[in-house]
Specification:
Elements lengths: L4 H26 L10 H8 L3 H13 L3 E3 L5 E3 L1 H13 L3 H15 L2 E8 L2 E8 L14 E3 L4 H9 L15 E4 L6 E9 L5 E10 L5 H21 L16
Antiparallel strand pairs: 1-2, 3-4, 3-8, 4-5, 6-7, 7-8
Helix pairs in contact: 1-3, 5-7
């Protein structure tokens, strides 16, 4: 039996349409932000760039599978299925068991806030954090998204997430320090952490006000940050990728 060209074209087009539809559905879910209770259809349109009819069509399928809930006023909130998947993720990937003690150690030794960041698309995500005991500190919470700017954290994420590592990685003096890159009042210092198979795990960092976390304080804290990063890499079962020069010291 032979098929005409129109039938062949229609069948080859269907999988592509399915991929595009899945992409739009994920875009819709990603539009929800921390602190959102319910988001109106108009706001979802503004955040995603999708037209209202497309959002409403996608929302029907997402509702059926428990990912969205449509409220009587026409707004939407995230469904319980996402909470279930989040719980599954946390139970299957318990990186915090290794990261949190490392952050606590950094704060105890340096007195500054310690965080562990990963990249999420065009932003950086604060996955874990322990705050400084000082009342004057940068207020960032676990789960907060920050821009991929010129901060030390973003620089580490940009360079060391690549596999294989670019040649420029060997030339970088770690830890990277920046002052006022994201905020004129905030300084930060960051270095990479690796997981199994030389995979990049994330950026380990210290942040504090520029008035306190100055060059002198940074010079004192740098060996501790490098040492804790090396310990965390080993704890995660990781190894540092081979470079022409070492990037994490064994302090």
């Amino acid at each position: 039996m032979t098929m005409d060209l129109a039938t062949i074209a229609a069948r080859s087009k269907a999988p592509l349409e399915g991929v595009a539809s899945a992409g739009r559905a994920l875009t819709l879910l990603s539009a929800f932000r921390k602190g959102d209770d319910a988001v109106s259809l108009a706001e979802l349109t503004a955040r995603t760039g999708l037209v209202k009819t497309t959002i409403m069509r996608l929302a029907i399928s997402l509702e059926e599978h428990g990912y969205l809930v449509r409220l009587p006023d026409g707004a939407y909130r995230l469904g319980a299925e996402l909470f279930r998947l989040g719980s599954v993720y946390q139970q299957s990937f318990r990186v915090e068991v290794h990261v949190m003690p490392a952050l606590e150690k950094l704060v105890a030794v340096t007195g500054e806030s310690a965080s562990f960041y990963v990249r999420s698309g065009h932003q950086r995500l604060c996955l874990h954090r322990v705050d400084s005991p000082h009342p004057l500190r940068l207020h960032v919470r676990q789960g907060d998204m920050r821009p991929m700017d010129d901060s030390a954290i973003a620089q580490v994420l940009r360079v060391f997430e690549k596999a294989p590592l670019p040649s420029e990685a060997a030339e970088i003096q770690l830890p990277i320090y920046t002052g006022g890159a994201s905020d004129p009042h905030v300084a930060g210092m960051a270095t990479p952490v690796f997981g199994p198979g030389e995979s990049f795990a994330g950026a380990l960092c210290l942040t504090g006000p520029v008035t306190r976390f100055n060059q002198e304080a940074v010079s004192s804290a740098a060996p501790c940050l490098l040492g804790v990063a090396a310990e965390l890499t080993r704890s995660l079962g990781g190894t540092v990728p081979p470079l022409s020069s070492p990037i994490i010291g064994g302090h």
